[in-house]
Write a structure and sequence with these properties.
This protein is an all-alpha fold and about 375 residues long. The protein is built from 14 helices and two strands; from the N terminus they run E-E-H-H-H-H-H-H-H-H-H-H-H-H-H-H. A hairpin with a 2-residue loop joins strand 1 and strand 2. Helix 1 packs antiparallel against helix 3, helix 5 runs antiparallel to helix 7 and helix 9 packs parallel to helix 12.
């Protein structure tokens, strides 16, 4: 490919070797996690929280600055799946295709990484919902908290059926779909490695044939992430990849700036521009344009500056923990507010938000450092014996 070769999944060229870690993608993944958490900030308000105040989106803390995180976005979930697909095709596709990593090792390593915290948060939310419903005679946000849904959550298949509804630690639905993507990924790579045409076929057929909307979304964008990696791999394998890697990040940054400017609720541009942006052709702007350009730009910049963003590498370490822990922490907070009869307007205060994120980051770091990592190491060391 462009005069380059492959060695253990890395593309070798005359100019460089692919970076060992995409720190910049970890940073943007952290921002995506922040987007999810702030989108879920509305959980604190009625009707999600039966004892909460009425919901007024613009009254949320720092709305003027964080509006892009509070507002709904069609690109957040596609971004997660695409980034996951890009990462897995980078890390594992060549090894899976060559058979240097067995299916047993691949899947057990995934379970060792994901399962421990999932089980803890599942049980914690089950207990918390019992406490909350006993106090308010209602469920907090997710109401399908029965035995059947508990078992589905236990085996990470809660999002595999049709119309199953959210339950317990609701955000785990994304993890459930991811587990299915890992299966499809392994089967695909064993047969096709990184064949671009096969990736396109799977992405299109899978997204149309899947009866479950969440699974269709997962297939479409996970394998789209694989396509992005193939594009990236071919760019860096050319004789002069810098022609693209230099200008593309700046173009992407400019497009983000314009998008944020147009979307800002308190900045009113020329009426014709605002009306143009409301047209259907621009409804998927973030997914079709910003998403792929952002992933490619950051990956290409990382190839040029391999240490860029390394000082923020800890962000990538705790994103999974933050994603799984933010809802249990919300549940704990509302139980405390109800129990101590605190004014629910506290959820609109900046001081509460700061304390919430401090607690979330600390809990995530402790979980990663002293719970998830030791269990994974112990499990994998036992597997190697």
């Amino acid at each position: 490919m462009g005069g380059g070769g492959q060695y253990d999944g890395f593309v070798l060229t005359m100019h460089f070797i692919l970076p060992k870690h995409f720190y910049l993608l970890d940073i943007v993944k952290g921002l995506a996690i922040l987007k999810v958490i702030l989108w879920h900030w509305q959980h604190f308000f009625y009707p999600y929280h039966s004892m909460g105040p009425g919901f007024d989106r613009v009254s949320q803390p720092l709305y003027c600055l964080l509006y892009i995180f509070y507002e709904p976005s069609a690109a957040t979930i596609p971004f997660f799946f695409s980034l996951s697909g890009f990462t897995f095709f980078w890390l594992y596709s060549a090894r899976v295709a060559k058979g240097t990593i067995s299916s047993k090792t691949f899947f057990l390593s995934r379970l060792a990484r994901l399962y421990p915290l999932h089980i803890v948060t599942l049980v914690a939310v089950a207990v918390g919902q019992c406490v909350y419903s006993g106090m308010t005679h209602a469920s907090f946000v997710y109401s399908n908290n029965d035995v059947v849904h508990f078992i589905m959550n236990l085996f990470l298949v809660s999002a595999w059926g049709r119309d199953v509804g959210f339950s317990f630690n609701g955000p785990v639905w994304l993890l459930s779909v991811q587990m299915l993507m890992y299966i499809l990924f392994y089967v695909f790579c064993r047969n096709f490695n990184r064949n671009a045409m096969a990736l396109v076929v799977v992405m299109i057929l899978g997204s149309f044939l899947a009866q479950n909307v969440s699974i269709a979304l997962g297939i479409k964008y996970f394998f789209f992430g694989g396509i992005l990696f193939v594009v990236y791999e071919r760019i860096v394998s050319t004789d002069d990849p810098w022609k693209v890697s230099i200008w593309l990040p700046f173009v992407t940054a400019a497009l983000w700036f314009v998008t944020l400017l147009v979307k800002h609720p308190y900045i009113h541009l020329i009426p014709e521009i605002n009306s143009l942006c409301q047209k259907p052709v621009f409804s998927n702007w973030a997914v079709v344009v910003l998403l792929p350009l952002t992933i490619l730009s950051l990956a290409l910049w990382q190839a040029k500056k391999s240490q860029a963003g390394q000082r923020f590498s800890k962000i990538g370490d705790i994103t999974y923990s933050m994603y799984l822990l933010h809802f249990p922490l919300q549940l704990l907070a509302v139980i405390g507010v109800v129990h101590f009869n605190v004014d629910p307007q506290v959820f609109n205060r900046l001081a509460f938000m700061i304390l919430f994120f401090m607690a979330l980051v600390l809990a995530s770091w402790i979980s990663r450092q002293y719970f998830e990592t030791p269990i994974k190491k112990h499990f994998l060391s036992g597997l190697a014996r």
